[in-house]
Write a structure and sequence with these properties.
It is built from 13 helices and 2 strands; from the N terminus they run ααααααββααααααα. The protein is mostly helical. Strands 1-2 form a two-stranded antiparallel sheet. A hairpin with a 2-residue loop joins strand 1 and strand 2.
């Protein structure tokens, strides 16, 4: 009888198997999707904030930012899991990956972008260079890391504990809390420190900030280092939640752009809000539609919002002409 039941279940169409009750009502599943969406959104926000700050200071769309995410995750994997690495625990490996991300961002600015800006290279040409840099870094990671997905040694498989109608693992809760704290830390940096004030001044008016005595080149370098560090940290968190692959950052890049545009180009706070909306929509849409389409629905929300409010949620309307 058991074998017969298995054969009947295997032969049943997919829609018939989906009718088996899951034990939770729609309200509980919606709340769970909202929790997952917030968790996904804050990870997108961590990676998108640096990209938004770079655009705000030098008006460059850094297409290689996704590779910073991948390098952060794969470098932490090397220190944590790889037989050729030292076998560190994930926590110090993450700290080292963040430092490497900051150094990578600073090195890219000093070696590539600063000389190009000094020559007066146009923004379109700079954008093309970012695409080439993205392809170069992605394939370097492919050669070193390989095509096989991997995961970290710690916090891989955990049992979720119930918080009322929803469940969450200690890893997911920790990642979400840390992500929120990092975002608050970035906000405090921008609002309550001298370098944060300088970053905001350069974003508003670069020439006026330079005339006021602000070292614009140093501010840009700090923004690149901050963006690289945040991207690397977001890569580790994303690798914890999903899986580590050689193109994980490239897959996340589209959602970063969506969050930045939705929140308002050049606004760090807009990137946070927009990324949160994108993450929630992506997860909630899976209640009605296949998971493979969750990114498409997030981008559809982006299109609708821009039709109603072209400057984004927190962006300012600008006069054209």
């Amino acid at each position: 009888m058991l074998a017969l039941a298995q054969v009947v279940l295997w032969a049943s169409p997919a829609w018939a198997q989906d009718e088996v009750p899951h034990g939770r009502g729609f309200g509980a599943r919606l709340l769970q999707a909202l929790i997952d969406g917030v968790q996904f959104g804050v990870i997108i926000a961590i990676t998108a904030v640096g990209l938004s700050l770079i655009f705000g200071t030098i008006h460059l769309i850094n297409f290689a930012h996704g590779e910073f995410v991948t390098i952060g995750a794969t470098f932490a994997f090397f220190l944590n899991v790889s037989p050729a690495g030292p076998g560190w625990h994930l926590v110090p490996a993450t700290i080292a990956a963040v430092l490497v991300g900051a150094l990578l961002g600073g090195a890219v600015d000093r070696v590539i972008w600063r000389p190009l800006r000094a020559r007066g290279t146009g923004l379109i040409n700079l954008f093309i260079v970012t695409i080439g840099l993205s392809l170069l870094l992605r394939h370097v990671v492919l050669i070193l890391f390989g095509t096989r997905p991997a995961s970290f040694a710690q916090y891989d498989i955990q049992e979720a504990f119930d918080l009322g109608p929803v469940g969450i693992t200690p890893r997911d809760l920790t990642v979400t809390v840390l992500s929120v704290l990092v975002l608050f830390g970035v906000a405090a940096l921008l609002q309550r420190t001298r370098i944060g004030t300088a970053i905001r001044a350069v974003s508003v008016n670069r020439d006026l900030a330079e005339a006021s005595g602000i070292n614009v080149q140093r501010v840009v370098l700090v923004v690149w280092m901050l963006g690289g560090a945040l991207a690397a940290l977001g890569g580790v968190f994303f690798g914890l939640e999903e899986i580590i692959t050689w193109d994980m950052g490239f897959k996340l890049l589209l959602l970063m752009f969506a969050g930045i545009i939705l929140g308002g180009l050049g606004s760090a706070y807009g990137a946070m809000v927009g990324s949160l909306v994108i993450g929630i929509v992506a997860q909630v849409s899976s209640l009605w539609f296949p998971v493979d389409l969750q990114y498409a629905w997030a981008l559809l929300v982006l299109i609708v919002v821009l039709l109603v409010r072209p400057q984004g949620i927190l962006g300012r309307p600008e006069r054209v002409g």
